[in-house]
Automatic annotation (TrEMBL):
Top EC class of this enzyme: hydrolase
Keyword line: Hydrolase
GO terms, molecular function: hydrolase activity
Name of encoding gene: eaaA_3
Domain PIC/HAP1/IgA0-like second beta-solenoid repeat region: 14-116
The protein's name in its UniProt record: Peptidase S6, IgA endopeptidase from phage origin
Alphabetical list of InterPro entries matching this protein: Autotransporter_pectin_lyase_C, PIC_HAP1_IgA0_b-sol2
Organism of origin: Escherichia coli
Highest taxon of the lineage: Bacteria
A Pfam entry, by short name: Beta-sol_PIC_HAP1_IgA0_2nd
Known EC number: 3.4.21.-
């Protein structure tokens, strides 16, 4: 999983086997190309990271009726996500699968060669 941000005039090649997925949730503002050859590419937003307490503290507060204390910074069920923008000069997909998931926007040209694309995926997310 790549939490970083690709920026500038660069080109990225991710050449992998069909069993490997690459997940980006940081963002991109690049004028070059991003090539995914094989495997899966997922572009998504990122869940908001929350402050946490220990399980002992959370359990003590739950006994007093306070269920607001979290023990994990992110979860699959949380409703608050940060949106991410991916501006890529050219997205090249070769024998790969691509999914544009929740809270992500993609701009740029797409060149798909023997590839599958699913846009606006909400059920397949990574944290």
């Amino acid at each position: 999983m790549w939490h970083g941000h690709f920026t500038g005039n660069l080109s990225v090649l991710n050449n992998t086997s069909s069993a490997v997925d690459f997940i980006m949730d940081g963002g991109a503002d690049m004028s070059g190309s991003f090539t995914q050859q094989g495997g899966g590419l997922y572009i998504q937003g990122h869940p908001v990271v929350h402050a946490v307490s220990s399980e002992a503290v959370a359990a003590a507060l739950r006994k007093q009726g306070d269920n607001s204390v979290l023990t994990r910074p992110v979860s699959f069920t949380q409703k608050d996500w940060e949106s991410r923008t991916f501006s890529i000069g050219q997205l090249k997909l070769k024998e790969a699968s691509f999914s544009l998931s929740r809270n992500a926007t993609l701009t740029g040209d797409i060149d798909a060669d023997n590839a599958t694309m699913v846009l606006e995926v909400t059920r397949c997310i990574w944290i």
